[in-house]
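Colleagues,

Please find the record for the two-part complex below.
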Amino acid sequence: MTGDHRHGRSMIGRIKRMMAKSMHGMLACREMDDFMVDYFDGKLPTGTRLSFDLHLRLCPRCREYVRGYRKSMELARRVFEEPDAEVPEEVPAELVSAILDARRRQD
Amino acid sequence: MSDAASSQPALPADDSALVERLRRGEEAAFRELVESRGPRLLAAARRLMGDEHEAQDCLQDAFIRAFRAIGRFEGRSMLSTWLHRIVINVCMTRLAARTRRAEESIDDLLPGFDEDGWRSDAVPAAERGVESIVAEQENRVLIRTAIDQLPENYRTVIMLRDLEELDTAETAEVLGITTTAVKLRLHRARAALRAKLEPLFVESKS
């Protein structure tokens, strides 16, 4: 299954629709999208998780989509966890003073 | 970090003692709060603001709010969690007020489906590894810019859930929306970000 054709008009698309009708719980790609957040949170109910995994095995487009989705989440995290964004040893002394001075002015 | 009061364990002894001293207006307690909890909160402000000066301003605002509100702190969450929430709220407010470049609509970035619910577009293979992508400084700038250019609601939910690692319920509380709305918004935000970052992880065949 190369996934290069519009599914609705290809032999592959017809096979998938036949399978979807005969296999209880077979998800369509749009439903995979609906479950994406819960999938990545590990919160899909077991039956849904099995259907999700089955769809990934059968659908190369969703397989690559999920792979890219996971990668872009990881890329975002990595960029925000750069070494210069680690927890500093201490708050700069001038900032501590500024905070305490501002508090006193509020009294 | 549950807010269920009935099953909430007591605050750690040192948290309770510090809160008492803060409520009494003890000057040394204010300094202790800033020096002990400040570093982690400053790191959070830096992540959210992406600018040192703004991060420090947000930290100062957050502590002033915390000092004023300490009388209302009921100990249903850890003191550090409460402070983290205040920092997030201060940063979110400041980010909303920032002058931004034109934000793109995300509709064009979301995947399409045909009438049977199958993906209507080919999806290129996500071959390139995360390590090789982030090794290039230019790519790190591109990634940060991609997040920055998301419409504010979507940028915020990605920052809170994926970067600050709040759970769905906490994010809903910060944003004042339902958990269902958080999940929907998060999925659309992640899908839009995936579309923007796709050129980075698809191997170009030159």
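Residues 1-5 of chain A have pLDDT under 50 and may be disordered.

Comments are welcome before we finalize the supplementary table.
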